[in-house]
Specification:
This protein is of the alpha/beta class. The chain has eleven helices and 14 strands.
């Protein structure tokens, strides 16, 4: 993103004093026109999956409470659905990942959006690993595991090796929760465009593309920087392929992986995404100091990525909620300002507008 710049045509800009309420930054998540929930989020972003165990329940509550107040969603991650989140069911995405930790029929029936996590952009092909230090009694109970033992998620679903198998997964969720929206989270291999269109034909409503440079900090650097395709390359590739298939307006494309600022949000939408999914930015709002000890039980100096009761007391969820809200309200205001400068009244107008971008290496000097 640092090499991309937004190109503003001042002649087309809207008046700066135009009320922000007249600029539409909402995103429709169900474009299939089927009988599933008709969901529209009020901001072009929602919270990505961070599981109970990888982060504290305080962190989860801070993010989900903020999402509820902002009119958007936040994902539970793969570690189950803690009871503390029940009051916010209408703003929770529950995740079904390869380890199937904490996946229960009642939690799938409780929510409006279910996400299949097939891969994570920070470490595709490596699966998941929660060290034994973080498997406390509460985490073990939620994941139906043994206290103190490390937990592994395999990198594939061993029941899914084709689009037809993927459709069986979608049908499985639909049998339990017929009105649920289905989100499919995938990494960004070279054939990510084929994966995206396959997900559409399997019945998905949302294709979530997770590029490299994402993750909470527990992913190895060698994986982050060398396996998945950067999200800036993956999104336009998928956008064009879905257009060629004639289904681009029937599926919502969400991007994540290295999106840190509202300008990054505008850039990735101009490349072809409908909205974004955030993760690390939320943690920075909660005063993450980027010490890269996320995987350790007592390694987080701010009590964010920990399950240790003593360290969890370092943060209070109402404080965390307000911190996340403050950041995202600032993002929303800046995105509206960018749209005004482009002369656009809806964020939909920015989708796929690569003419609004320039790469620094190709700028005329």
């Amino acid at each position: 993103f640092d090499k991309l710049r937004l190109v503003i045509n001042k002649d087309k800009s809207l008046p700066e004093d135009l009320p922000d309420d007249e600029i539409d930054v909402g995103v429709d998540l169900n474009r299939r026109g089927d009988n599933s929930h008709k969901i529209r989020i009020r901001v072009p972003f929602y919270g990505g999956g961070m599981s109970y165990g990888s982060v504290s329940i305080t962190t989860m509550l801070s993010r989900i409470k903020a999402a509820a107040e902002l009119g958007t969603f936040c994902c539970t991650g793969e570690g189950g659905y803690p009871d503390e989140l029940k009051p916010y069911d209408d703003h929770v995405i529950t995740q079904v990942a390869t380890g199937l930790f904490g996946v229960k029929e009642e939690t799938i029936q409780r929510v409006k959006i279910v996400e299949f996590k097939y891969a994570q952009g920070a470490k595709p092909g490596l699966g998941g690993h929660l060290l034994g230090d973080k498997v406390t009694p509460g985490v073990a109970r939620m994941r139906e595991a043994v206290v103190g033992y490390p937990l592994f998620s395999p990198f594939p679903f061993h029941s899914v090796y084709s689009v037809e198998d993927h459709k069986k997964h979608v049908d499985w969720i639909k049998a339990m929760n017929p009105r649920a929206l289905i989100s499919v989270k995938v990494a960004t291999p070279n054939d990510v465009d084929m994966v995206a269109v396959g997900s559409y034909y399997a019945g998905a409503h949302i294709i979530h593309l997770d590029g490299s440079y994402g993750g909470t900090g527990a992913a190895p650097d060698i994986a982050k920087k060398n396996i998945a395709m950067p999200i800036e390359y993956a999104v336009p590739k998928v956008h064009r392929f879905l257009q060629d298939e004639g289904v681009r307006d029937k599926i919502t494309v969400i991007a994540s992986g290295g999106i840190r600022t509202p300008h990054d949000v505008a850039k990735i939408i101009a490349l072809g995404a409908d909205g974004v999914c955030t993760g690390t930015a939320d943690l920075v709002a909660l005063e993450c100091i980027r010490c890269h000890n996320c995987e350790r039980g007592r390694g987080c100096a701010r009590g964010i990525a920990t399950t240790d009761p003593e360290l969890m007391d370092l943060m209070e969820h109402e404080w965390g909620r307000q911190r996340v809200i403050n950041m995202f309200l600032a993002w929303r205001k800046e995105i509206i300002r960018i749209l005004k400068r482009f002369g656009m009244k809806s964020i939909k107008e920015l989708v796929g507008r690569t003419d609004c971008l320039v790469h620094l290496d190709y700028m005329k000097r």
